[in-house]
Each structure stands twice: as structure tokens, then as C-alpha cells.
Write a structure and sequence with these properties.
alpha+beta; nine-stranded mixed beta sheet
């Protein structure tokens, strides 16, 4: 495990980034009250601790070293069993489930830095990492963006680590222009893993 400090910009508060943080490290942090996009900060913190302990789980954490407060994270995990991708027969696909940064710590490129740290050292080069962008998860109020603008913003962010838009027959994504499937095929991903992603991506409904 390596740690890197993100330098403050324009008076922003500094944060330390830890790729694939251990459950113990995460337990020792207090969630920032601004980490509430998906659920209450305490509930999200508990979910991150659980993800960090899973076989395909990885939580890259950004925390304020002066307060030991969790101020941002990127969460990777096995595909959800209730979605198309949960029918993964390879047991190797990884979903980039969420990226979140507390308001007070924005302006440091923390989201981009956490993603870069997550993919450093070829961590996901032997699999397919995908992300499903759903408009009902978009933080439109805080950003002032519309649904399509927010989707494009996420596409630019995820492109910094090689995730690109791909077509899919999944109805939740295909039937709404504000939704999108992004994926990165690792350079060492076995053909069977890539083939399984292709099967799920293009399955007939």
C-alpha cells in the first residue's frame, strides 16, 4: 500500500490518497458529512469497509491527515447480482461502482488522482473494469449540470484511466441517452474474461 498527498489548490484542504485501502485503515477514518450522494455518510462508510474486505473489492481513499476524516473515495467491487453484469460466469469482472469527493475538498483533482492511483502498477490489467452511469445517481444540484452534461463530465473523468464508452443492449442503459456503459479491457485480460463481458454487453432481451 502506498500513500500520496494531493497538494491543495487555491486554499483547498490537503488530502492523502491510499489506493486499495485496508478495512482497518477505513475503520479508523470518520466520513465527511458531505459524502452523502448515494446514502448517509455513516452507511456509505460501513459499505466501503465491507467492500475493502471482499475478494474483488478495492476502495481507494482520500483522507485529511490532520482530522483522519475520509473526504473522498473510489470503490471497485464484483458486479451486483441484481444487474446484468452479476451473471458474470468468469468470476473476474470488476465494476467501478462509485466516485465521490466532499464539496470542501473539490478543486484538487482528487477524483482523477484517486482513479490514477487505483490503476497504477497494473492493478486491473488482467481483467475488464466497467462502470454503469445512471442519471438517477448524478449530482445535478451541486454541479448545476444537466443530465447529458453530467454524463459527459463522467466520461471525461473515466477516460483519464482508459475507460471508454461502449454500446450495450442492457435496457436500463440502452433506452436512456443520459445513461452510459464505460469499460476498460486490461492488456493482460484473458480472452475468456473479455468474451464474458462481450456476452453480457450484447445479450438478447
Amino acid at each position: 500500500m502506498t500513500e500520496a498527498s494531493a497538494p491543495p489548490r487555491g486554499g483547498a484542504l490537503a488530502a492523502t490518497i491510499v489506493p486499495c485501502a485496508s478495512p482497518d485503515l477505513l475503520r479508523g477514518l470518520t466520513p465527511h458529512p458531505g459524502l452523502d450522494t448515494f446514502r448517509r455518510p455513516e452507511a456509505q462508510h460501513a459499505a466501503l469497509v465491507q467492500i475493502a474486505g471482499e475478494e474483488r473489492g478495492c476502495v481507494t481513499a482520500a483522507y485529511d491527515p490532520s482530522t483522519r476524516q475520509l473526504v473522498g473515495y473510489v470503490a471497485f467491487h464484483a458486479p451486483s447480482p441484481v444487474e446484468t453484469w452479476g451473471d458474470d460466469r468468469s468470476g473476474a469482472l470488476v465494476e467501478l461502482g462509485a466516485v465521490e469527493v466532499a464539496d470542501a475538498y473539490r478543486g484538487q483533482r482528487l477524483a482523477e488522482r484517486m482513479l490514477e492511483a487505483s490503476f497504477a502498477d497494473g492493478r486491473f490489467d488482467d481483467t475488464v473494469v466497467f462502470a454503469t452511469l445512471y442519471r438517477w445517481h448524478y449530482d445535478l444540484t451541486r454541479t448545476g449540470l444537466g443530465e447529458l452534461g453530467y454524463r459527459r463530465m463522467l466520461e471525461r473523468l473515466y477516460a483519464t484511466v482508459g475507460l471508454v464508452p461502449v454500446e450495450t443492449t442492457d435496457p436500463e442503459i440502452a433506452h436512456d441517452p443520459a445513461n452510459r456503459l464505460l469499460a476498460r479491457v486490461g492488456p493482460r485480460a484473458p480472452a475468456a474474461v473479455v468474451g464474458e463481458f462481450e456476452r453480457l454487453r450484447t445479450r438478447r432481451w
